[in-house]
Design goal:
- The protein is mainly alpha-helical.
- Helices cover 69% and strands 0% of the residues.
- The protein contains 15 helices and no strands.
- It is globular.
């Protein structure tokens, strides 16, 4: 997507998503493991910041639908996606690996992995695929799991789009997504765990309602309202809600869908999303997501535990700001430059 095509509200939503995830990882996720030098914060948004990833998936469905309309061939789509994702991943995974290898703490000892971890990390695949190389193979950073989810969505949505280019694409993908999710749910709740596993592993069935809803929100944004569009969004909304384990998660997901409806129909209500600081964080959100977890918590885990809690919490926030500054550098010097590489590859 070209810079002049950017929607500032979407960057603001990305900013909210990545901040939720950072707060979750820095103040709640590892509290029971004793990796923080301070007590975990056991209330919203810290306790449910993992739902920021769900918000990313909604945004991704919207943005990929937009990207497909600007891609003339499958090669163009996949080359642009690959370059956009892969080069920041190289830098961030290397920095993470070096941090885990040099910082000594209970956290780094628990999270440290071998160089084989670069294989699933750089191929955006699940570590289980590579267990034949080593039974302990894992991502360089556990947060990378969501890239495997994204990669599966890219594959299936692009396959559908370029096979059925035109109006029928949206309806076809919506029907495919609904069928996949219903099949997965039927297998899971009937006790057919193996079938449910493979449907989810191949199609990312657990999260496909979010991507599909994002795609439909792009249709609304583009003025292509059909009689079935809103009912389809509501179906995927219900599918997403049914996948949650508690009321707070369901309410949070509901707020995400309300936010997108407001973005489509009442954008004047969302001026706060265009806040320069928030849109800047949204702009660098991919690099920040790759960089934040293991590097940030490694630093937090070695903070002096005899400091007063207020100073420890402030130090953790300072770590978050430092990680965001690093993410900005990676965005500016790596992520933004990747478009030149994709143009070169497409010219070959």
């Amino acid at each position: 997507m070209m810079k002049n095509d950017r929607l500032p509200e979407l960057d603001g939503i990305r900013g909210i998503a990545v901040l939720m995830v950072i707060l979750y990882h820095y103040f709640y996720r590892f509290g029971t493991d004793g990796f923080y030098p301070y007590p975990a914060i056991n209330f919203f948004p810290f306790s449910h910041g993992f739902l920021g990833v769900h918000l990313f998936f909604l945004v991704s469905g919207f943005v990929i639908a937009m990207t497909l309309t600007h891609s003339k061939t499958p090669k163009e789509f996949f080359v642009k996606r690959f370059c956009r994702l892969w080069f920041p991943m190289i830098v961030c995974s290397l920095l993470t690996f070096l941090t885990l290898s040099t910082v000594e703490s209970s956290f780094t000892e628990a999270r440290r992995t071998s160089a084989l971890g670069f294989i699933p990390s750089l191929t955006f695949t699940d570590p289980s695929i590579w267990k034949w190389l080593s039974p302990n193979i894992n991502y360089i950073d556990g947060a990378y799991w969501s890239l495997f989810v994204e990669a599966r969505f890219y594959f299936w949505v692009a396959l559908t789009y370029f096979s059925l280019k035109g109006r029928i694409f949206v309806l076809s993908f919506v029907c495919l997504s609904a069928f996949i999710w219903l099949s997965y749910a039927a297998f899971k709740f009937s006790g057919m765990k193996t079938a449910a596993f493979y449907v989810n592993f191949i199609f990312a069935a657990w999260y496909i309602p979010l991507f599909s809803a994002g795609l439909l929100f792009y249709e609304l944004h583009s003025g292509r309202l059909k009689s079935w569009t809103i009912p389809a969004i509501l179906f995927f909304f219900l599918a997403s809600i049914l996948s949650q384990n508690d009321l707070v998660s369901a309410i949070t997901l509901t707020s995400f869908f309300v936010l997108f409806f407001a973005f489509i129909y009442k954008r004047e209500w969302l001026g706060f999303l265009k806040n320069p600081a928030l849109t800047c964080i949204g702009l660098i959100s991919y690099s920040a997501y790759l960089l934040h977890q293991n590097i940030g918590v490694s630093i937090i885990s070695v903070l002096p535990r005899d400091l007063e809690k207020i100073y420890l919490y402030a130090s953790a926030l300072l770590v978050a700001c430092t990680v965001l500054a690093g993410a900005y550098c990676i965005y500016f010097y790596v992520e933004r430059k990747s478009s030149h590489i994709s143009k070169f590859l497409l010219s070959l």
